[in-house]
Amino acid sequence: SSRPCSKPSRHPKALTMNNLKVSTQLMMLIGVLSVLLVAIGGLGLFGIGQSNDALKAVYADRTVPSAQLGEIRALQLINRMDLNISLVTPTPEKIAEMTAQIEANIVRANKVWADYEATKATPEEERISKAFVESRKQFVQEALLPALAALHANDLTEAKRVVTEKVRPLFTPLAQGIDALVKIQVDEARR
Question: What is the mean pLDDT of residues 121-141?
Answer without folding.
Answer: 95
